[in-house]
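Take a look at this chain, tokens included, and explain the fold to me:
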Amino acid sequence: MNGIEPVELHAGPYRLRLATEADIDAALEMSYDPAIRQWYPTRITDRKSAERWLRRGSDWSGGHHATWVVADAADRLVGSFSLVHIDQDDQFGAQVSYRTAPWARDRGVASYALVAATRWAFATLNLERLELPHAVANPASCRVAQKAGYRQEGLLRLGFRDALGRRWDSHLHARLLTAPDSDHPDNDR
């Protein structure tokens, strides 16, 4: 598997960039949020583990993921975004994962990041399909998927495991290279 060359992406008022040392405290603070802890298992427990998490995310050399910090105009971390399980062998697809910091919610952070990363994955990695699974009990993720033109394809019974190991029904949303959502306003840019 080939490594992926890290890139910075512009996403509306936000920027997707590699992590820096200045992001450690914000990443740690974000990891304490109960909603993030419920839906996204995290190994962040202190500054050292936050630093390791950010460093791993910035290392794209394995080719299996592309991970960014989402930063606002002041360059403060407001979330994170990843493409994971990237299939470079067949260039078929990847899965989307993201977190929005509690201090940045309801500002479109995840939707802007998803649109920008989707465009990049299709254009640069030549992927054909991106999937966005989420627990049905997490309606905010459903809204993010819909805003970014990801169609809901189905319900996976007990398809999502939370950080405590509990199973939840999940929605599977996806976006295809060959069938972009023509109703999404960012598709014309």
The beta strands are 9-11, 14-17, 65-71, 77-84, 93-100, 129-135, 151-161, 167-176. Confidence is low (pLDDT under 50) at residues 182-189. The two ends are 32 Å apart (CA to CA). The chain is about 25% helix and 30% strand.
